[in-house]
Each structure stands twice: as structure tokens, then as C-alpha cells.
Amino acid sequence: MNNQAWILRNARIFDGHAAELIEGGSVVIESGRIREISPGDAKLSNARVIDCAGRFLMPGMIDAHFHSYTPTFDVAATQRMPMALLAQHARVILEGALSRGFTTVRDAAGGDYALWAAIEQGLIKGPRFFYSGRAISQTGGHGDMRPAEEAGVCQCASSAAMTVIVDGADAVRRAAREELRRGATQVKIFISGGIDSPTDPIWMPQFSDAEISAAVEEATRRRTYVMAHCHTDDGARRCAELGIRSVEHGTDISPETAQLLAQKNVYVVPTLTVMDVLRRHERDLALPAASHDKLRGTFERMAESIQVCARHGVRLGLGADLLDSRFHPLQGWELALRGEISPPLEVLRSATSINAEILQMGGQLGCIQPGAHADLLLVEGDPLRGLDMFREPEKALRLVMKAGDIVVDRRS
Fold first, then answer.
1. 186-221 in b/e burial notation, b at 16+ Cβ within 10 A?
2. pTM of the model
């Protein structure tokens, strides 16, 4: 446990919730937790003092759709990579995320106990790590990366580190139980087609209601939840009807479905950055031939769905969903791209307190309040006026703190 006490004084404090900032305030940190927030100076014996010089102080950000085992967009190449090498790529990816101010990530496919333990033991200087284990796919679903010409294999076939392929409610139940046994903090399933999978149309419904319900039931038994890859409106409606907690991507959501999502307290986690990367670099990436047609208009439809959801009161999270070591440094673009659609305050809430709610960590993460983890960012400039600064976090972030430890210090 970190026993160093700190006082961060003379800051403009955004607590993760309120539109009103605490001007010239102080945050007192002890044993890795926030002890006190003061509207002026604060005192604590043996505390080291950091003068924030009137800068913007905010909670550490949360990326709610992250992929650690993704050094390349070529998923087939990733599947052939030795796990020891893949783990080294993951270390670089995770440490990069923390340096960009993402003090927590939710790994949406592949992240495992080994990465969690390496972070907890300090072997990887990474963010807090919530992981799904292997995402669960049906045969011929978004997690099945076998090309059409490849011969079929048994139902136990796994796409290496990222996904497991199963069919039938009992098989889904076993797969969910296995990932939860391995320490998964939530279960991930695919219920629509996707961009980079070779054999499923993006509009394709995946898994039966019984299969989805089996995953939800098993997650509920563990007092956790299911997150679902879902691009389609009918898929989002099934999420609301069948008890899924978070809709990932949410590319096509109608007003009627948005109303239902809001009524059922289902979250939506848009992922604009990966769609932006795909549309700008699709000819340079190792995508299946079918992906190019599936990609058309996806970014624009997702942007429209964000507005539809916001108008109808859907709680919107934030995730970048990036793959490939060339593009992981663009993680902060998710805030900038969302800021072109939504007010900066709402985007900052998505990246902090709302994402913490999704992770079932409200009041612990994504906020500045007594008792919360001392995960904090000191920002140059005013994010409430615009979010483009997060495109260059090495310039915008003067200080990154996780659990009361300074992990990045660019104040000089």
C-alpha cells in the first residue's frame, strides 16, 4: 500500500459529476485514497504538497472498451503469436494507456488473470484492469475468424487468446462459468456481426435468446454482468430485453430502442476512434475482403446514434476499441471525436463517473470524493471548452496519479 500522503492545492477541481468546478481547491490523499476535498487550502501533517497552479484537476479516465492483446489488426497473425511475445506487446500497450491518463481499462476480449496479476504485482506499470477473459462467440459469429475456405472444427475450437467459439445454451453457460472461474470481472458476448470478421454480415443476429440468457444468468450469479458487442438496432433491443448491462458500439440505435435502453438502465459504449482509424487506413490494414463493404458509413451512423441516445436519456460510456500498436497512442482521440458531437462536460462524465458505474465501481473510480481511489489527472488548459487537447496527452497531461502514486510528471 502507498503510505505517502499528498495535498494537491490551488486546483480547478472537476469531480467527475458536477458542472461547477471547485476553484482554488485542494485534494488531500492518504494511503492511496482521497481523504478530503477542500474549497481552499488544506493541511495534513507529513503530507507532500503539489501546487497545481490553477490547473484543471480531474479523475483518472476509464477506457471501457480496451484490447490488451492486440499488437496488430491482423487477428490471424495475433492468434499465431506465442503467448510470451503477446504478453510483452500487452505490457507496452497497457503502460502506454496509463501514460495517456487512462488509469483504468476494461479489456473487452482476451485480457486475463496473468495481465491482472502482473499489474497488481507491479511487473507492468499499467492501469487498473477489469477483464472479460475470452469473449464468447457462436460458430460463424464475430469472434470466429476462420475464413470460409477453412474446414470446420469441433465446437470447443478457440480463437487463441481472444475468443472461444461455442453453440447452444449449455455450451454458453459452461464458457461463461469458465471465464468467471478464471477471474473475469464481466462476461463478453457477440450478438451481431462485426467489421473485421470474415463470414458474418454486420446485420446478422447472433446467439439465440436462450444462449444469451444463459450468459446473463451465470454473470448474475457472480454479481456481475454481460457486455455485448452489438452494432444493430435489433441487437440493442435484445440487450435491453434480455438483461445485458452494456451495449458495445451501438452503431444503429433508433429513437424507440433508445427509449427502451434508458428505461431498462442499459448503458451504451460508443467506439468512434476505431471506426475513424478503419475508415482512414482500411487499405493499409490486413482486413478480410468483406470488411470494406461493412465499414461504409459506420462512423457516421455511430455518431448519429450517440445523439439519439443522448436525447432519450441513455447513459453513454466511452471506449476507444483500438487495435494495433501503431494506433493505440490515439486512445485520447475518443474524447476529441465525441466532443465534436456532444458537450465536453458530458464526454468527461462518460470517461469518468459513467464508465465507473458501468464497471460497478461508482464512488470508487471516476470521481473525486472522499473514499475514492486517488486516480487523478492534472490537465493543462480547460477541457470544458474543448477536448482536442487529449489528442496529444503528452502535452496536455502535467501529472498522472494512480492510487496516490505519481506515474507521470510533466510539470517541469
1. bbbbbbbbbbbbbbbebebebbeeebbbbbbebbee
2. 0.96
Within 13 Å and on the Cβ side, how many CA atoms surround 138? Answer: 25
Phi, psi of 323 (to 5 degrees): -125, 160
Contact predicate 212/244, CB 8 Å: yes
Longest Cα–Cα distance in the chain: 69
Pairing outcome for strands 6-13 and 56-59? parallel
Q: How far apart are CA 312 and CA 259, in angstroms?
A: 6
Going by their DSSP bridges, the two strands 187-190 and 226-230 should be labelled as: parallel
Q: Strands 405-409, 397-402: parallel, antiparallel or unpaired by DSSP?
A: antiparallel
C-alpha 379/C-alpha 395 separation (Å) is 9
DSSP character for 316?
B
Q: SS3 breakdown of the chain: % helix, strand, coil, rounded to 5?
A: 35, 20, 45
Q: What is the mean pLDDT of the chain?
A: 94
Joined together, the cell numbers standing for residue 140 give: 460463424
Could you tell me where the DSSP H helices lie in 40-182? Answer: 75-80, 83-99, 113-120, 169-181
Residues 6+ positions from 104 with CB-CB distance below 8 Å: 60, 61, 62, 63, 127, 128, 129, 130, 355, 356, 359, 361, 365, 366, 375
φ/ψ (deg, to 5) at 51: -85, 115
State which amino acid sits at residue 307.
Q
**267-314 pLDDT, tens digit each:** 999 999 999 999 999 888 878 788 888 899 999 999 999 999 999 999
pLDDT tens track for 303-359: 999 999 999 999 999 999 999 999 999 999 999 999 999 999 999 999 999 999 999
Domains of the chain: residue spans and CATH: 6-60+367-409 (2.30.40.10), 61-331 (3.20.20.140)
Q: How many CA atoms lie within 13 A of 196 on its CB side?
A: 19
Backbone angles phi, psi at 210, to 5 degrees: -65, -40
Backbone angles phi, psi at 392, to 5 degrees: -130, 70
Closest CA to 106 of 226, 215, 236, 15: 226
Helix, strand, or coil (residue 209): helix
